[in-house]
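Forum > Structural Biology > Help requests

Title: Can anyone predict the 3D structure of DUF2975 domain-containing protein?

Hi all, first post here. I have the sequence for DUF2975 domain-containing protein but no way to get a structure on my laptop. I'd be grateful if someone could post the structure tokens.
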Amino acid sequence: MEWKKKWETQPGLMLITIVIWSVFIGLCIKTGAVLFNFIYSLFNPLVAQNLYEGLDLSTLLEQNFWHYISVLSLILVITGLKAFIFYLMIRIFLKINLMHPFSKEISKLISQIGQVAIQIALLLIITNGYFKWLLKRGFELSELWSNTGGAFEYLLMGIIVYAISRVFNRGLEIQSENELTI
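Reply #1:
Sure, ran it for you. Structure tokens for DUF2975 domain-containing protein below:
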């Protein structure tokens, strides 16, 4: 019943929610595929030649087992956090009401998205530094950069979303003041 009402009153938000769900599912599939192939490659090193979409870390696995585990763990955490951002966005779009858009729960979710985006940026900075360190020591990391993304974009997004959350908090205060005066 709730879904039907949302479709009738806020069809634009529901369409955006469907798109966000699609991206979320895609990121979950990517994270799950990398995790499955990572675990499988520990028992069958040939799998490391094509972990996900052509990612070949078989040389790194042969050179150093622990660096291989570290690199794939970092990739898994980053893709998992990206999926988590979209999960939070889904929660926002399912709970928001355009008639009374400001609520503590929505404000908290927006703030959480900003925090997670900044965490991803910091993790990407650390990860890229680690990858450069490995390259300087002669480890082979073919096409690994395409799986990490840019730290600057996530840092900028996190700062912008955090600023939006502050504005949203102010809107929440104004809305509650207006409800008290009516």
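The chain has a mean pLDDT of 85. Residues 2-181 form one domain.
Shout if anything looks off.
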